[in-house]
Structures
1.
Amino acid sequence: MVFNYEIKKPWRLEVDFLDVGQGDSALIKLPNHQVILIDGGPDNLVLWRLGELLPFYQRRIDLIISSHYHDDHATGLAEVINRYKVREIIYQADSTSSPIFDTFLNLAQIQKIAILPLKNAVKVNFSTDCFLNLWPSASLGVSADPNNSILAKLNCGQKKFLFSGDNSLKVEKALLKSGIDLNADVFKASHHGSNSANSEAFLLAIKPQLVAISVGVSNKFGHPAAMVLERLKSLNIKIRRTDQGGTIKILGQ
């Protein structure tokens, strides 16, 4: 399945891994002025971060991708669609949900936002050289798990970004077997840098120059794991963390 978005006046690519505490949210501003939000963090701090990065007159988000239903990824999304005009929402089709995620989807239906429960891989085209590939974990044949997430890969000009949600080692193994091209310049670490993911084999397949870790200060989970940090250092991969440097901004060509 392929979705095509209209082409607009060129703009510079920007990807921001938002400082939302112990949670995940990433803002993508594409060259043709489309705006994408992947996840919404654990609370409404995401609104503050969006206000910092989008001009006051920018009240539109073209696409929201919800990697999975966990509260630390989904809580802020309801207020986002209350404050911004959202064109479309993509989320992983799954029988498992949560009250917070259900509230978000119900609100989206009331607002008549286009909603796609993703079961199979899709490609979303934004321009001739800028597109997203999305793989729900179910399409890889892995067993159900609360951490299973949509894997998103952005190709835009000369830059490639990989967003992995909270996917675990079993999803990484399935991805390695699938033959999917995982190579990316920037990788958003799985599950906040947990050692339940981010295996050496997976990192070697991605070959990232930079790994961005979305994580809260002194969080109770001990994220990111010391073993993962050592693994990244041994592979000479640059590390940036939201708990140490705030929002991580990556600019394209």
2.
Amino acid sequence: MTTNSYHFQRVSFFCFLLLICSTLQESNASERKAGVARINLTPPLELKSPLGGYGERMNRPAEGVHDRIMGKAVVLFDGQTKFAIVTADMLGFSPSMKPEILSRLKNDGWNENQVILLASHSHASIEMNAINPKNVFNIPQLGIHNPELYEFTINQFVKLIQEAEKNPVPVKVGTSRIQIDGWNRNRSIKNGPVDKDLTITRIDKEDGTALAVLVNFTAHPTFMTAREMLFSAGWPGHLQRTMESLIGQDVTVMYHNGAEGDQTTASRPDSGSSRWEKADKYGTELGILCWKQWQHTKTEKNVVFKFHSQDVTLPENSWHPNFMATGGKEYGLSEELLTKMLPIMFPRETKSVSVRVGDLVIVGIPGEMAADLGMYIKEKTSQATGAKYAVIGGLADVWLSYILSEKQYLRGQYEASVSFFGPTLGPRLTEQVIVGSSHLSEEK
């Protein structure tokens, strides 16, 4: 063999390898698949699950079921890896939940960076301290740990994620957004910041059949008071069921909240005096609005798919000087109890998991963030990533506390009294999650 012939063969083989690699990368880039599942999270009444959200319920178990609380999951694939977006009609997640779920999914190839858990924050759902093994204090106002309920809930989430990844299909994805007036308000500051964004993400099969819909809107689901003792997903449940009925096609609609720390619902006209009726009317009418926006949302193949997990170091535990007059009174706590409780029940560090699907970026926030910080994060994330639609995934993975700006914390209203990392928590977490979400730029 001549030197020139040998050189030619080497060059040809190298070009062939480049062609194969290029083809594989193209294939992987366009191979966007998704699978979905849903599961009933409503505990059997014999488990005596307390309802969360109000200390004055004193750990009383739910008396029945008004409507089911559901868990839903969409697992996204790109040919190389997978990521699960999980929504739940729940108040929030205790620090032990996600690690335990992931430990049981370890053999299925999952880790903590590939899953984001998002709660609607329903106040007629499972008390999150009843599913917290670190809650050893037996305080009725706080909720008492129930091991059987914890085991039931963990098992349901494990089954949900396993089911969602079973039969993925090729998908097209698209996101759109409108601002809506008169649906929410700032409950803490008169004429304060209000996040009016309604963001809809379509995940369709290749033939255009609806597979899943993500809905992000920011407001507390608190139509029900401490007196209502039936399980309910609240207005987000009505929203999801309304959209599923209008779209049909066995679609799975998944609602997740935003930076709702100081955001609540605005009253709808002629909604009656019953709390149940108010929640029904609000959720149904908002669901119709979402459905109309869904119809105008265009999808495309081969969208960007990336995710990132950002380590977050938390400030030292502390409590607001007003705590004993507000949150402390509601939850039956003293400063002596707080001194023992905070190091046990609250982590010293956490993570912010974020995911990008096309023009959508969900930024995971581990607690109840105030709207001004949330809107700032959304703006900076869009600028850093080039994604049109950044949203806050509120109450993501774990409930830390309320997350406020330093100014709002020092103002000392209810939200500040249930914030357990001092005045620097909001600014510090905001800075670190923006750094994390910037990794989802198309260029990185």
3.
Amino acid sequence: MLHRHTLGRVPPKPHTAFYDEDGSLLMEQCMTRQGFEGPFTILYFRTPPTDEFSVESLSLAGFCPVEAVREQPLHRRHIRTQDLSPKGDFLTARQTVLVNKSVHIGVCKPAKPAERFFSNGDGDELYFVKEGSGLLESVYGMLPFREHDYLLIPKSTPYRIHLEGDRGTMLVFEGRPWLGIPGEYRNSYGQLTDYAPFTHRDFRLPTELLRYDEARHGRAPYEIVVKMSDELTVHTYEKFPLDVVGWDGALYPVAFNIHDYQPKTGLVHLPPTIHTTFAGNGFVVCSFVPRKTDFHPQAVPCPYGHASADMDEILYYVAGNFTSRKGIDSESISLHPQGVAHGPHPGTYEASIGTTETSELAVMCDTYEPLRLTTVADGIEDKQYHTSWVR
């Protein structure tokens, strides 16, 4: 997803016989995108990850299957995800709140240790860790993470998320079918350009291979929950299916901390998509971080009113003072849909004049296709939010 990387042992040339230290032949597996035309990684397994002997269906209420509301009158909305109670592990705690064909957006507030591995075959995943720290354990190895990290996980990657104290709060994007670094941030050689808002050095990669440990992974049989076409199936294996001795390629999870994002400031207020961090098929994810405000003597730093004719906008509030909003708390999600105007709350526009910096910390997502609330979101919506502009 970023650049070619190698972890562990690989042979001098792909598609050649490669043996483990005990002399047994290792199984090569190619993880490819866009058929064989896109990025790929080659992994070397001690046990072929194909010995599943059982497949069963699974349902997780609030995550899969997902249920959209039947009616959604057009107006600005406020979803109070802070009202969701912690429960389950990183998988069973997932609650999807907004959906369209390109992206599913949800929250995850675990309260238990991670159990089964999970693999999302519907698209790449992007977690934003609002609270907590821990370890992402995947077929590509171990990736430590900390508060306010983004975790970008390639499609069909078996993984688990371990949180310290088994508690945390995470925003989750499922990009259908892809989500990654915007193409305009790369040069013709694939390198991140010097004018991109981050560098290769800002991204952290898996630090060591995943090694089977009975105390950590239990005894046979082993299970991986797979999501495909918005259905879950549990795949059961007789042997541990993630026992890899090495891999190399361009597909693997990465961590990026939002505070390493390099924001841009202009003479006057710049549109929010100038803060684009990741992009998918028909949507972008943006990072609002503390920064200097506009430097024109008569600049109005507060965002101007906006009537977006083509895009929905959601904002996930993390911390700090968001200059354009009142009545919004940490973990709130606002939805400002295309078709109706939105803008700063009364008084905030004028109050921003003369300010020189902003302390806001938030994650934004703009989508071309309108977003639908799920029944989970409907149950935690602030129903009066759309009238809060009335003086």
